[in-house]
């Protein structure tokens, strides 16, 4: 019984039957380490290197999703501002002087967005915003699950991915104090 018990334990970790090394303490496992599921079992150095590269890319994607979401919100605001700048469409025709024409013009301008006021996105716009949020949440949760394996190499890869992603995607103009500057998240 003692031999079975010691065979299932490996350097403070657990050997999960299929050869997976899992530890709830800091570890540097490479071969036979498992992540997320027993099907993601590292069987070679090349597979571990590929997993490390994949983790780096996953975190870069997470860092890229954040500005995409902010840029989409900025696009909606710019779109709304251009709608406001265009102003209400003037009605033409013989009924513009009548009571019916005036009430139609009032109805038209009362539903139009007004400057300086907040607005709610349309259903389709909100669906896109919610999808972007869901993707950020899912990728961040997946990265958190990977970090919970306490594998030093994977955590270093997460940090490398965060650095590369922040370097690449948070490169933007910043306003100085007192400057009323609209910050564009992309391309300028």
Automatic annotation (TrEMBL):
Check the record and name the InterPro entries matching this protein.
Cop_transporter (IPR007274)
Keyword Transport set for record: yes
Any one GO CC term of this protein is:
membrane
Q: How does it sit in the membrane?
A: Multi-pass membrane protein
Which controlled-vocabulary keywords does the entry list?
Copper, Copper transport, Ion transport, Membrane, Transmembrane, Transmembrane helix, Transport
**What GO annotations for molecular function exist for this entry?**
copper ion transmembrane transporter activity
Question: Where is the chain membrane-spanning?
Answer: 47-65, 153-171
Pfam families assigned to the protein according to its UniProt record, in alphabetical order: Ctr
Q: Please state where this protein is localized.
A: Membrane
Supply the PANTHER family for this chain: COPPER TRANSPORT PROTEIN CTR3, SOLUTE CARRIER FAMILY 31 COPPER TRANSPORTERS
Which protein family is named in the record?
Belongs to the copper transporter (Ctr) (TC 1.A.56) family. SLC31A subfamily.
| Protein name, per record | Copper transport protein
Q: Which organism is it from?
A: Cryoendolithus antarcticus
């Amino acid at each position: 019984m003692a031999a079975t018990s010691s065979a299932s334990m490996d350097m403070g970790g657990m050997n999960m039957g299929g050869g997976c090394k899992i530890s709830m303490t800091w570890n540097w496992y490479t071969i036979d380490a498992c992540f997320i599921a027993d099907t993601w079992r590292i069987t070679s150095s090349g597979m571990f290197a590929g997993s490390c590269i994949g983790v780096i890319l996953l975190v870069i994607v997470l860092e890229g999703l954040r500005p995409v979401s902010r840029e989409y919100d900025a696009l909606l605001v710019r779109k709304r501002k251009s709608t406001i700048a265009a102003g209400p469409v003037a009605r033409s025709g013989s009924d513009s002087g009548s009571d019916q024409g005036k009430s139609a013009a009032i109805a038209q301008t009362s539903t139009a967005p007004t400057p300086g006021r907040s607005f709610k996105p349309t259903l389709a716009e909100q669906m896109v915003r919610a999808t972007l949020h869901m993707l950020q949440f899912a990728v961040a949760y997946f990265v958190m699950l990977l970090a919970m394996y306490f594998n030093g190499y994977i955590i270093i890869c997460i940090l490398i991915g965060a650095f590369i992603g922040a370097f690449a995607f948070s490169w933007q103009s910043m306003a100085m104090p007192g400057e009323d500057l609209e910050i564009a998240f992309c391309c300028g």
